[in-house]
Design brief:
Mean pLDDT: 88
Number of helices: 10
Helix content: 55-70%
Low-confidence stretches: 1-9
Shape: elongated
CATH superfamily: Outer membrane efflux proteins (OEP)
Distance between the termini: 66 Å
CATH class: Mainly Alpha
Length: 478
């Protein structure tokens, strides 16, 4: 009979080890099937095509070295990206913590104590003590303590599965931050160039209007016209001058924003970007791909899908609490009252065996937690489906805005050309005495407004294209 424990303990270890991984409770995750339209409903009227896009470096299509440089630096130094990168490392570390719980733990320890036992303790105090019994002595102990919870029903494996999905969600979250950052850098750069170009037009018109005011004042002094012409020319000049501070403010604000996006002080780029440059022009063709491509290209969609996977796995984690937990525990070491024979064979002690623990009654807490996880999984599914729909909406709106702004721009070009002809004719008629000075001022005002509107439309076309690239999930490799 004394041999049975030596046989039963290894047999129990083998049996529990075999059970590890044989069962996993809770639902298995299946990626949701998402219905996608075959084509975009918005007409491809702005040079867009259904060709598969290559959007990893979409900003290079503008052929602007300054923009390329700003984006390259932003990717390296932007603080939001650094925060997102730290979140990825945090999520990976949490995943490693969860994965480590699948294996056994082994602790080592050693103690020394000087102790004195009571001579009047129960039982022992009632027995006659032979002479020479020491109640005060040293105790030396060193040993190992091991335990291993066998994941019979898969609760720990579901935890690892959830952690792995969370890592994916955080990684896609970082890519979403990157997509947003690239769009913000490009948008603010175009805003800067647009304000600079509008300021150039305002200054050009100020010069023309100052010349017109000088002519009106000279004609008034010579009695060839009334003071009304002078006052009207003065009012037009003042109105144009009032626009200049607003444009200068816009220029400074755009440079400041770009500096912060690059992780630098707001004024760090003033010397680099204060010199005016053209607004980056849109390429003739923009491959937009198909709606189905969006599911793997948009990082926010993939982030929502990974969160759904994590929520599904957590249902299994909660369900595993309904079942018993099996563990193997062991203890081994040396203990002695004398340092001289501390590590001798007679000082050895050990124990090894399986244990089982099962929550029989917990007032429904486990089942309530399962309902909580099911509800969270339903929320994650709804968030995923909504994210998909919102992404489709964003692309459709961007396609419409990009195409329609190009149509608007062509109309404004016609207005600029007509305003230039009108001003030329007004000056000729005024010089010939066949028209009043008010006609010249009106023509100058109309030309300035048309030229300013054309610059704003140029800016809008490029910014709408940037919005389209962002909506398509451009800025990273799939």
């Amino acid at each position: 009979m004394k041999h049975y424990p030596q046989v039963l303990v290894p047999a129990a270890i083998v049996a529990l080890g075999f059970l590890q991984g044989c069962c996993t409770v809770g639902p298995d995750y299946d990626e949701p099937k998402t219905a996608t339209p075959a084509q975009w409903s918005a007409p491809m009227a702005g040079g867009e095509t259904n060709l598969a896009p290559s959007l990893a470096g979409w900003w290079k299509s503008f052929n602007d070295p300054q923009l390329d440089s700003l984006i390259e630096r932003a990717e390296k130094t932007n603080h939001d990206l650094r925060i997102a990168g730290a979140r990825v490392r945090e999520a990976r570390a949490f995943h490693d913590i969860a994965a480590s719980k699948l294996g056994p733990t082994l602790d080592a320890g050693g103690t020394y104590a000087r102790q004195n036992q009571s001579k009047n303790q129960p039982v022992l105090g009632d027995l006659p003590m032979p002479p020479g019994v020491h109640f005060e002595n040293n105790v030396y102990q060193v040993g190992f303590d091991a335990s291993w919870e066998i994941d019979v029903f898969g609760g720990k494996r579901r935890t690892v599965e959830a952690g792995n999905a969370e890592v994916g969600a955080v990684e896609f979250g970082r890519r979403n931050v990157l997509v947003t950052l690239l769009g913000e850098v490009a948008r603010n750069y175009v805003e800067l160039r647009g304000c600079q170009r509008r300021l150039e037009i305002a200054n050009k018109n100020l010069k023309t209007q100052e010349e017109a005011l000088a002519i009106a004042e000279d004609r008034f002094k010579n009695g060839l016209t009334s003071d009304m012409d002078v006052q009207q020319a003065t009012a037009l000049l003042a109105n144009t001058r009032s626009v200049v501070p607003l444009l200068e403010t816009g220029i400074q604000a755009s440079i400041h924003r770009l500096g912060v996006l690059l992780g630098q002080p707001p004024g760090a780029l003033l010397a680099e970007l204060s010199q005016p440059a053209p607004i980056p022009a849109a390429p003739p063709q923009v491959p937009a791909g198909l709606p189905s491509d969006l599911l793997r290209r948009r990082p926010d969609i993939q982030q929502a899908e990974r969160k759904l996977a994590a929520a599904t796995a957590l249902i299994g984690v909660a369900t595993a609490d309904l079942f018993p937990k099996f563990s193997l525990t062991g203890l081994a070491g040396f203990e002695s009252t004398s340092a001289s024979d501390w590590f001798k064979g007679d000082s050895k002690f050990w124990s090894l065996g399986p244990t089982v623990q099962w929550r029989i009654f917990d007032a429904g807490r486990i089942r309530a937690n399962i309902r909580v996880q099911n509800a969270r999984q339903e929320q994650a599914l709804a968030v995923y489906e909504e994210t998909v729909l919102l992404s489709f909406e964003e692309v459709e709106n961007s396609l419409v805005a990009y195409a329609k702004e190009q149509i608007r721009r062509r109309s404004i070009e016609d207005a600029v050309e007509a305003s230039q002809n009108s001003l030329r004719m007004a000056n000729q008629l005024y010089s010939s005495g066949l028209a009043s000075f008010i006609n010249v001022l009106d023509a100058e005002r109309a030309l300035y407004q048309a030229e300013d509107a054309l610059v704003q439309s140029d800016k809008a076309v490029t910014q709408n294209l940037i919005g389209l690239y962002k909506a398509l999930g451009g800025g990273w490799e799939t």
